[in-house]
Amino acid sequence: MKAIRFLNECGDFTMEQPENYSYLYFPIAGENKIKSSITPNLGGDSKIDQNTFLLEPVSVENLHNNRSSRNFWCMVEGVGNWSVTGQSAEEEYKKFTKEQDKSRLFAGFMWHRIERISSKYQLEAKVTSFVPLDYNLEVMQVEICNKSEEKQTITPIAAIPIYGRSADNIRDHRHVTSLLHRISTNKSGVLVKPTLSFDERGHQQNKMIYYVCGVTGEGENPTSFYPIVDDYLGEGGSFTNPLAIREDIEGIAAEESFEGKEALGGIRFQKITLEPKQKVSYTILIGATTDSKKIEQAMLSFQTKEKVEDALQKVKEYYQEKVNVKYHTSDENYDHYLRWISFQPILRRMYGCSFLPYHDYGKGGRGWRDLWQDCLALLIMNPSGVRDMIVSNFGGVRMDGTNATIIGNKQGEFVADRNNITRVWMDHGFWPFLTTKLYIDQTGDIEILNEKVPYFKDKQILRGTSQDEIWDDSYGMKQKCLDGSIYYGSVLEHLLLQNLTAFYEVGEHNHIRMRGADWNDALDMAEQKGESVAFTCAYAGNFKDLANYLREYKKMLKVDTIVLSKEIVMLLNCSKELYENPIEKQKLLQVYGQICKHTISGSLVNIAIKEIIDDLESKANWMMEHIKTSEWVEDSLGHGWFNGYYDNHGRQVEGVFDKNVRMMLTGQVFAIMSGTAQKEQIKAICKSADTYLYQKDIGGYRLNTNFYEEKFDLGRMFGFAYGEKENGAVFSHMTVMYANALYKQGFVKEGFQALQSLADTAMDFNTSKMYPGIPEYFNDVGRGMYPYLTGAASWYMLTMITQVFGVRGEMGDLIIEPKLLKEQFDQEGIASISLTFSERQFEISFYNPMHLTYGSYRIERAVCNETILFDNSNGKACLSKKELQKLGTSLHKIDVFLTKISKAECK
């Protein structure tokens, strides 16, 4: 029997005894900024941001160490005290024995339910947790059922510790900040309003009210409260064996107040006698607000069981609609996992890269890459509004081609680097074009390139190597011209600037310098002499693609020139003599940086588009040829791959060193994806990766071989244990990008192996020990680590849709070019996908009755709504943007019929 069993096509799932597995947690969050994590025993935390934690912040090790949790007790007259969440000393003692409570988890997008039955207490409890759509709070609904044949009298008590301060205070002034607490009780619960907040912002007057309030399912208020932790626990007591429960101590009344104590949302309800099979329910609200009236409004909105259930149903429907992509392959279980993978980008948008137990780094928000990569999934699921998001994001680019690394809370808001810490990631300039390109293809809106956007400005200049000493806050955060006006450049200009400046910032081997790191943040110790061949490939691919899209721009908009800032023109230089000379390239970039270090002229120049295309392609061809001739390495067996890096001593990183093979996946991914690697080289790379990096039972392709060296001249990753995180783990993000690159180049079986190995490991709960989805990485024994918040989910979803099913846009046209293998079709030879394209919902079905595999079939015909025939050319089916616009907004069915390729066609 599978540990996780799906219940329906929505992806709802169940599992038994989830508390018997370590490190499990589940996300529940809302659009109003509240972000929670919840464990099978209702541990975890809840917060709005770094400085506003409702419940005590937790890291993953706290999940089995902490006794503090969302708890709910039933004091059963004549029997004892039962924790319906399993958080009691008694239940901990019985764990893993035949006397352990029977528990079962049920969960779906943004809702979580634990059902628990106690043989001793003859009670059944259902605890449902979710964040409603309209309130900044977490709902915890508890339903108790008497399973006995006799009447039972119970006294229900909720006990939820209220942390109420910044995450900084978990160690920094933990006791002192409790002295700031002003605690009060009202008719429904416990409220905490600290006088001040102590955090990195300094001492500030606090306006936030943290609260835990409760009501019965019939709208009756509690009878008394336990607002103080010490009083509730008693001397020597604990949250799993508290004095108030042990000795049945009555709580205090409403309208009382206290100061300077650790607070508890302790709520005691009226004693009740349950008939056999009778049920009773209670609703607990855990929230934070600056407006006390909203607490009263919330209590009215969730006053009855029916209102809570209605709110839960709205949450379920809302997120099912958000995840508007559905898959049908030969493996129903895999289809459900794909739904969860498609849900993960929504979670990343809400949580950023923080605020879940494994993601205990950072202080919230998203980084530069996240802004762009999360847009990839949004373009597939919810493209409305993405245009504005993309345009706004370009406002984070500096005039020197670098970008802001601190992202504001609002769209398009960027702030100066925290504490003026200067750091440049050399890959940052690569990602914006990748996302913009997908947007243009999905929509045909090439005019987005003409949108005018300001440039970001702060103290950092010369690509992070110096500071603008005359810049201050009065200048503002936007680049200015000599006359004091804000300069606005086109999106196209921003893209050209990011890529061109990277081209000139090279090391002694004439590849782009590493700087702070590339995509792999743990390659962070090669600032002086490190070079990333991997992302030099990536930028070369950008140059090629930018040239191609400029051709489309020229043709579609019927223009021959574009307007650029006068300063940028000097970066357009087709001199191969310059390309070959790293020192001269550095000098040119330095001159450019000096010209625009404070203000720019504001003068504009018309440049012929053909001239720019020639320049971009000249640079791309030179970069690719340079890499192919200088970075291909081989072992004694004839295996070959590309060296991806140079360390801080200027030494090539990959190859064979004293019989030890050093190979990293990243360099192969971008060599393939960019088109730098030729067909025979891709074959060799695949063979090498399968030999040195592939380990199926832990998820597939490791990020690197074991270097057997701490290698502090390249990055901190080599200080990690091998097989963990960036040092040799199966890192999902790069594995999925490897698959994507292989699919794009026609290496379908190889790409399928990379994708499927990840999925197989994730779906094998006995190995991965994680809820559905794809983790950041699998460790050395295959456990899924850092679940939910990973850019790999966007890439996995994108690869499945645009490459595997082959449904994608090309300049706004809908293209269908399947790359499905025969094992991906069901028994009847059918595979299908439902998705939104051009604001219209499509269900696209592929019919393969002969059970052919990719490479042996072609599209025979494709029909839309039984009437519209597709133009079938080059093995693709196409529905033009013009024809798309004629379709209504109802669901449209497309049937794609596959037939065998003839011998003549093969030739």
From TrEMBL:
It comes from the Bacteria. One of its GO terms (molecular function) is glycosyltransferase activity. The keyword Translocase does not apply. InterPro entries: 6-hairpin_glycosidase_sf (IPR008928), 6hp_glycosidase-like_sf (IPR012341), Gal_mutarotase_sf_dom (IPR011013), GH65_N (IPR037018), GH94_catalytic (IPR033432), GH94_Enzymes (IPR052047), Glyco_hydrolase_94_b-supersand (IPR010383). GO terms for biological process: carbohydrate metabolic process. It holds the Pfam family GH94_b-supersand. Residues 112-303 form the Glycosyl hydrolase 94 supersandwich domain. The keyword Transferase applies. Keywords: Glycosyltransferase, Transferase. Residues 324-459, 614-806 form the Glycosyl hydrolase 94 catalytic domain. This is Cellobiose phosphorylase. It comes from Candidatus Galacturonatibacter soehngenii.
